[in-house]
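Hi Y.,

Following your request, here is the sequence exactly as I used it, all 196 residues.
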Amino acid sequence: MFTGIIQNLGKVINFSNGELEISTQLDLSDCNIGSSICCNGVCLTTTNIKYNKNNYIFKVNIGDETQKRTIFSPNLLNKSIEVNIEKSLKIGDEIGGHFVYGHIDCTTSVKDIIHLNSSWEFYFEKNFHKNNKFISEKASISINGISLTIANVLENTFVISVIDHTYTNTNLQYSKIDDQVNIEFDYLARFGFNNE
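Below is the corresponding structure, written out as tokens. Let me know if you'd prefer a different format.
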């Protein structure tokens, strides 16, 4: 389980045969083989961790189901992308965002990015069909593992307002129009619709 508060960025250095290799400056000294690390919102299990030249380099396996549902697929993944990294929540840690499980529901695309005076507005395509009910103003959502609040809902898009701290400390700063992102709907919101 995670909180959606990104701790650092990582860079994909290799992705082949279902194995993803990421380099990060985040201190992973308390992680072991088998530890869960959230990478762009996907809960992944480490299969190898090593320290080299002030960076931690870790490997994770990307299964077929994960490749179908996320941007970690050969068709969508640019090997040079920056990845949002968060280590798993420990008992006693602050929960600063919302409960993020790392179970991606789907991907969607960036439709527009507007730089305002002190924040950014990100517009994302709303193409979730029966899951559109989870897209409502002030609801939480995880986008590439970032805990965010939906600011506005339009007919075909929804809007996220992003403050400077979030922008400069996540891979949102590298986003471009039509980029694909990982989406996880707020797990707690699902209970309000479980009888529908």
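DSSP finds two helices and twelve strands in the chain.

Thanks again,
Q.
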